[in-house]
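Problem 12. The chain below contains 575 residues. Write out its predicted structure in token notation.
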Amino acid sequence: MSQRVYDLIGVGFGPGNLALCIALHESEEARAKGFSMYFLERQPKFAWHPSLLLPGAQLQVSPIKDLATIRDPTSSFTFLNFLHWQGRLVQYINREEKVPSRREWSAYLAWAARRMDQYAHYSQSVQDIQPVEQDGKVAYLRVISKNLLTNEIETLYARNVSTAVGGFANVPAVISSLYDFHYGSSNASRVVHSSTFLPQMSYLDSILQREATTSDEPLRFAVIGGGQSSAEIMRYLRDHFPKADLTMIFRASALAPSDDSSFVNSAAFDPESVSSFWESGIHQRRAQLDEFRRTNYSVVRSDLLAELYEMVYDQDIDYEDAYSPSKGIVRIMSNTALVGAEQLSNARIRLETCTHAGEQIVESSEYDAVFLGTGFKRSAATLPFFNTLAREFPLLSEEGTERLREQELNLDAQIATAKDPDAMRATVRGITRDYRLVPTDPSRWMRDNHSILSMHPTVVPKIPAARSVRERMLSTSRSTSRSGSRATSRAGSPKNSPRALSSSNIEVASNLYRPQAPCNLYVFGCNEHTHGLSDSLMSMVAHRANVVSASLMAATQYPEPKVNGINAPPCPTIQ
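Solution.
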């Protein structure tokens, strides 16, 4: 294994890398070039958010935005083809529902992953990724992983690495010391994050049910957060513990519906939106992220929102039904922040909250369990296997990321009028349009032969489709605004600013990122700041796979790197 040099090693085998694997598997160019790839996944088998497969939970994106349709509607990996092969296509059509259940979507993804088993290696925890030099240049990457079944360390080599490992639980600092869960353990921690909800409940459920039958008082549960996950947890708890008192605590003034309107979806999640977002300045991008947060953050699907409101409304009806069991109280605490948490000796948890609507009220209450629908952290700088590469790529460290943000703020006005704006954007942001990280020292990652570098421009393939009126209007307005901005700004261009990048640095970046160095690191799911709100969402995986596979094809024309001074033997290639 140590003598192989793969064209691509993927870290993580969730929807992001799975869509890329499928795109390359179906690529005639990749097959003709003998492209080789291998994907390492920590889990023992493919699973997509298994802890959130709650009864009634639905997908929050159109099923047409699957692993392949936007890239190639004729692909055999589309959701509709999955339904056809499962014998459920007609029945699904008869449902007349816009979206499938999350359970069915998970089954679709697992079906697609099983068809790509030849490229996947499960129970592998990547420990480190290291650059390996030849003649003073980085020639390839060494990927060190641990087999979780045998505890053996394995080493692989690759020209390119793509990472798509998803997010990590965002646990509020005030309660983080009480959150403790490890897969495979019998830990029954009473602080439960949505990312581990079902596995934790498999341990905690029997304990809580026993307490519910032996206590004279109803169980009391707190749910922190006002988004989709919190709402789904509220529904689950109401169904499984109908006599428990439920309190939902969140900062916003009210629970809000997610904005899934056609115009907003088009502006935020269409493939074209990624390019327009990328071409925007830092202030424009921040404004757009704030504007479209209502599509994904701290919002609830309208149908579930109506269910929650019915819970609250129904309990105020003054009528006793002898044939229906009594239910616990549902309490909604808006404009409220969690300010303290304490584990009590009786296993309960005391929460301190502060309400900011009207008169400030500080309240202390005890709960039998606390559930966190507080979202996920998505930052490449937090991934431990990037510790070595953090010295090479500024975007892989918190300090480097901050420096890039400051640099872009200072250079924002100059980018649009630069000789090569795409190269300058990549340099000041630390990442290219096609998801490759920019090294601190680009010259270390370049071959001496520059003639190859001019053969291909930076490739962002278009999805073959007729251009809409909206696209034509946007294209016209962009070309007008660009030509206007150049005409007005050239005379006063701050090209002599001490903060400006030198022309030589831009030239180096331009050579390196058109199309690429012989060795590249792609990062998915952590790029909301540069690639838009859809970067970590399912809606963009097929389009991104199209972009990245084209980028990888442009990179495979470099000379064969050597391991230990000899040409590496052939790798398993796409058949």
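Discussion. The two ends are 20 Å apart (CA to CA). Students who got a different answer should revisit the alignment rule from Section 12.3.
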